[in-house]
Amino acid sequence: MATMADVARSAGVSVATVSHVVNGTRPVLPHTRRAVLDAMDELGYTPNTLARSLVTSRTRSIGLAVSAISNPYFTEILQGVEAAALEHGYGLLLADPHDDPHHERKVVQLLHERRVDGMIVAPSPDPRELLAYLGRHKVPAVLLDRVVDLPADGSLVCDQICAESAAPMARLVTHLAGLGHRRIGMVAGLPGLSTTVERLAGYRDGLASFGLGYDEGLVVHGDSASRGAEQATAALLALASPPTALVTANNAMTIGALRALRDHGLSVPGDVALCCFDDFAWADLFSPRLTAIAQPSRDIGAEAVRVLLDRLAEPAAPARTLRLPSTFVHRTSCGCAEQPLTSVKGTPS
Prior knowledge:
Number of helices: 12
Structural class: alpha/beta
Strand order of the largest sheet: 7-6-8-9-10-12-13
Order of helices and strands: HHHHEHEHEHEEHEHEHEHEEHEEE
Strand content: 15-25%
Distance between the termini: 50 Å
């Protein structure tokens, strides 16, 4: 079995340099790093991860806690996290908090007990236990997709990364209003999530920009799930004056809304126009094809890893909240012909 000394001889460098490449303990010139990596590959050298963690107090692993792992949006985020982690030599431990605050705290504790170097977490609607745990144990963390108010006492310094929500939702609403719709219903997400709050705000902004009043009777909560959205959409369709257009606040709820429309014998967009937040791989396979907001999910996952590694390198750096731009994907469920992609830009804060 090849040793670190064998790698050093083959690469023409010192054992210390090989150690710095393997453990990431000191910057190494790119051509030297490449020579070491080539020698490791040629000799079949495999670092002893356990021994390395005892020396460096680092396991080179990241904990990822996201709910609804079966959701295509989070699946793509996971792919972005995994690719970026692997690129930087990190492994990934995965847990599902199920959007339950108590379970969330438990799975984060389990990840912490497995000595991950840091965590990426999509917080639940009530993340108080989560934030208290992260702050108490000084766990380096990045909050993903949902933005929270961090403790004002400075006990927790962590970064947050998500896509823009309000402006893209307003874009969907103004698009439908521009097509002549005046009763636009919304199937909103799980109450308490920042994404739900922001997309509701965007819905109201979109109405206001066309001089349309906000009617709370046209807003129902599908709780970010297909079944909940099916029931919520059915309630909208039962109104004495039902909406002529719908916006749904995530991809799971889009499926539920479509099922409810089908069960009521209604066609899209003939009877009800539909626009949705979250694009997904088969959105253009529906008939009609779904007009949607596409979030940069893989980029969000990859950026979360990069931000976490920055935090590990500089624990005292100021916390950052990054918002990535989303894209309006113009298809036919809104009642229009397809159009080229246009971006809805966000700004870092």
